[in-house]
Amino acid sequence: MTAQRTWMYGAGAGLLTGLESSAVDCFYVCVGAFGLTVISDFLLHYPRMIHGGRCFHRNISLVGNIDRTNFLDI
Length: 74
Hints:
About 80% of the residues lie in helices and about 0% in strands. The chain is mainly α. The chain has one domain (about 1-65). It is rod-shaped, with a radius of gyration of 26 Å.
């Protein structure tokens, strides 16, 4: 897109398009980094909430003991 604008409208338009795309990429990086920080802070501050579903996990793990050797023989 930057090359197309440069060819069609000149070097100034190409430069502005390139700067725009760089600014938007920086914004996306900041949003991603902030999102990962929020998720990791949540996981570190609320481990009890995450591990609170242990009884549910134990009930599901009983299903995991099904013999899978004949599962694909349909």
